C-alpha cells in the first residue's frame, strides 16, 4: 500500500513538473499594439499568475501602435506577480519602447534598437506630429516607467521629445538646456533618440545582449534567454501564449465593421419590433446586438459609469413616454438622445488614462469607428425605408401572434377615409386594427387611447396616418 502511495505521489510530482510552462507574449510586426493586444496580454498575465508560471517572456519586435493600448499593457506588466523579462528582438520603437520600459528586466538580441517614440496622429490623410500637450503627457509616462525600475528617465524622455538635448556630462547622462565644453552629445536638439544594441547596454537600459533565437520557439531554450545564466535551469520548459477563444471573440466584436453591424442590427431590430404585432425575431435581434455590445465594452474596459448611466436613463425616459405619459414629447425625444449617446459611447474607444490628451491621441481611431457606425446606421435607415412590411412574410411567421387576430401575410392597406380601430395606444406610434388585421400607424402628433375609433387620413410608405373620428 505504501509503495502504491509513493508511486502515486511521484506521478503527481512529475505531472506537475511536466505541466509547468513559461509565459510567452510575442508582439511582432504582424500583431499591432492595439486594444485587442492589450486585452490578450492582460488576460494572459492573469492566467500565468493562476498557473504559477515561473517566468513571462515579452518578445518585442514592433514598430509601435496605439499609445493608449501600450499604457494598458504597461499597467498590466507593473501589476504582474510573475517575473517579466522584455526581450527586444529587433525593434522596440514608439509604443513598443514604452512597453519595454515597463518591464523589470530588459534583454536585447544583437542588432536590436529602441526609441523613436514621439506620438503622431493622422490628419488630412497624412501623419503629423502631436501637439506639445500630448507630447508632454507621453513624455511623462515614459519618464515614470523608466524611473519605476531604476532607469534614467532623461534617456526615456529624449526618445519622445525632439526638443530635449541629451548629453554625457562628467560621466552622467542628463538632459540640459545648453551644451558646455566637454559635454558628449548623445542626442542633439531636433532629433529623436533611438538607441542601438551597444548603446542600450552602455546606457544601462538592457542587462545583456545575446544571439537571436529561433523564429518560432517552442521552449525557453530556443529563445535568446536560453543563453542567459539566470534562466538556464528553465531552458527545457515549453512556452505558452495564454491565448483563448474568448480573446479572439472579443477582438472580433471590437472590429469597426462588426461594431457598426451591431449598431445597425439594434436600430433595425427595434424599429421592426415596433412595426410588427407581438414579440418576434426583430426584438430578439435587438437584444442580442445590445448584449454583444455590452460584453465587448466591458471586456475592453470601454464601458464607464457615464455611458451606462446615459443608456439606462435614456431607456427609462423612453419607457415612461411610451407607456405612462400621454403623447410623445420632450421626454421621449430626450430619452432617445440619451440612449443613442450612451450606446455610441459604449462602441467608441474612449480612454481617460492620459486625460484629454489621450482622447486627442485616439481621435483617428475614434473617428474611424464613428464613421463606420454612423454609416451602418444610415444604411439601416435606407433599408427600412425601402423594405415595406408586406415583403417580410417570413418575419411574421416567427411573431408571437394573438390567437384572436388574423394576421394576413400579404395585407392590403386600408384606403384614405376608411374607418379603423386603435388596437393599442398611439403615442403617436402604435397599432390599429382593420378587418381583423393589425397595422402600424401614427397619429398627427396627438395621444390616442386604445379602442378609439379612427379614420385613415394618409399614408407614409407602409405607415398609416390616422386621426380620431
Explain what you see.
The chain has 469 residues and is of the alpha/beta class. It has three domains: 2-116 and 193-243, 2-enoyl-CoA Hydratase, Chain A, domain 1 (Alpha-Beta Complex); 246-302 and 348-391, no CATH class; 401-468, OB fold (Dihydrolipoamide Acetyltransferase, E2P) (Beta Barrel). It has 15 helices and 18 strands. Strands 1, 2, 3, 4, 5, 11, 12 and 13 form an eight-stranded mixed β-sheet that branches. The protein has a five-stranded mixed β-barrel with strand order 14-15-16-18-17. A hairpin with a 2-residue loop joins strand 8 and strand 9. It is elongated and about 95 Å long. The termini are far apart.
Write the layout of secondary structure elements.
Blueprint: H1 2-19, E1 22-27, H2 35-50, E2 56-62, H3 67-79, E3 84-93, H4 95-101, E4 105-109, E5 113-115, E6 120-123, E7 126-129, H5 132-148, H6 153-160, E8 165-169, E9 172-176, E10 184-187, E11 194-196, H7 197-202, E12 209-210, E13 239-240, H8 245-254, H9 256-274, H10 281-299, H11 305-323, H12 330-347, H13 356-361, H14 363-385, H15 393-396, E14 419-422, E15 429-434, E16 437-442, E17 453-460, E18 463-468
Parallel strand pairs: 1-2, 1-13, 2-3, 3-4, 3-5, 4-12, 16-18
Antiparallel strand pairs: 5-11, 6-7, 8-9, 8-10, 14-15, 14-17, 15-16, 17-18
Helix pairs in contact: 2-3, 2-8, 3-4, 5-6, 8-10, 9-10, 9-14, 11-12
Amino acid at each position: 500500500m505504501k509503495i502504491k502511495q509513493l508511486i502515486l505521489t511521484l506521478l503527481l510530482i512529475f505531472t506537475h513538473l511536466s505541466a509547468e510552462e513559461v509565459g510567452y507574449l510575442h508582439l511582432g510586426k504582424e500583431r499591432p499594439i492595439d486594444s485587442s493586444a492589450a486585452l490578450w496580454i492582460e488576460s494572459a498575465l492573469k492566467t500565468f499568475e493562476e498557473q504559477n508560471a515561473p517566468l513571462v517572456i515579452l518578445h518585442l519586435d514592433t514598430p509601435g501602435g496605439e499609445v493608449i493600448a501600450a499604457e494598458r499593457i504597461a499597467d498590466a506588466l507593473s501589476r504582474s506577480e510573475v517575473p517579466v523579462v522584455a526581450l527586444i528582438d529587433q525593434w522596440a520603437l514608439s509604443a513598443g519602447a514604452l512597453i519595454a520600459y515597463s518591464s523589470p528586466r530588459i534583454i536585447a538580441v544583437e542588432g536590436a534598437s529602441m526609441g523613436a517614440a514621439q506620438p503622431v496622429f493622422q490628419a488630412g490623410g497624412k501623419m503629423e506630429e502631436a501637439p506639445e500637450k500630448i507630447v508632454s503627457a507621453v513624455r511623462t509616462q515614459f519618464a515614470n516607467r523608466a524611473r519605476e525600475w531604476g532607469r534614467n528617465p532623461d534617456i526615456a524622455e529624449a526618445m519622445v521629445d525632439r526638443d530635449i538635448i541629451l548629453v554625457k556630462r562628467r560621466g552622467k547622462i542628463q538632459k540640459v538646456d545648453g551644451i558646455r565644453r566637454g559635454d558628449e552629445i548623445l542626442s542633439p536638439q531636433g532629433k529623436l533618440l533611438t538607441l542601438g544594441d551597444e548603446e542600450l547596454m552602455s546606457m544601462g537600459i538592457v542587462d545583456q545582449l545575446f544571439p537571436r533565437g529561433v523564429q518560432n520557439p517552442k521552449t525557453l531554450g530556443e529563445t535568446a534567454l536560453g543563453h542567459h545564466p539566470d534562466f538556464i535551469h528553465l531552458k527545457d520548459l515549453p512556452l505558452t501564449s495564454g491565448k483563448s477563444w474568448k480573446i479572439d471573440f472579443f477582438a472580433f466584436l471590437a472590429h469597426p465593421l462588426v461594431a457598426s453591424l451591431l449598431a445597425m442590427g439594434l436600430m433595425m431590430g427595434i424599429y421592426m419590433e415596433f412595426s410588427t404585432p407581438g414579440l418576434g425575431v426583430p426584438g430578439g435581434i435587438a437584444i442580442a446586438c445590445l448584449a454583444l455590445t455590452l460584453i465587448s465594452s466591458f471586456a475592453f474596459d470601454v464601458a464607464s459609469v457615464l455611458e451606462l448611466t446615459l443608456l439606462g436613463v435614456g431607456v427609462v425616459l423612453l419607457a415612461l413616454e411610451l407607456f405612462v405619459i400621454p403623447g410623445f414629447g420632450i421626454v421621449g425625444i430626450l430619452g432617445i438622445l440619451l440612449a443613442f449617446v450612451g450606446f455610441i459611447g459604449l462602441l467608441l474607444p474612449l480612454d481617460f488614462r492620459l486625460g484629454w490628451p489621450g482622447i486627442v491621441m485616439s481621435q483617428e481611431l475614434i473617428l474611424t469607428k464613428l464613421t463606420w457606425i454612423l454609416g451602418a446606421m444610415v444604411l439601416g435607415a435606407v433599408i427600412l425605408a425601402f423594405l415595406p412590411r408586406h415583403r417580410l412574410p417570413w418575419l411574421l411567421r416567427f411573431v408571437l401572434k394573438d390567437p384572436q387576430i388574423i394576421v394576413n401575410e400579404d395585407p392590403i392597406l386600408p384606403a384614405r377615409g376608411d374607418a379603423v380601430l386603435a388596437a393599442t395606444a398611439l403615442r403617436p406610434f402604435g397599432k390599429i386594427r382593420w378587418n381583423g388585421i393589425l397595422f402600424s400607424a401614427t397619429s398627427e402628433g396627438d395621444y390616442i387611447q386604445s379602442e378609439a375609433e379612427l379614420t385613415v387620413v394618409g399614408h407614409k410608405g407602409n405607415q398609416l396616418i390616422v386621426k380620431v373620428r
